[in-house]
Amino acid sequence: MDQRFCSNLKNLRKQSGYTQKAIAEMLQVVESCYANWEQGRTEPNISTLRALGQIFEVSLDELING
Question: Is it true that domain 3-65 has CATH number 2.40.30.10?
Answer without folding.
Answer: no
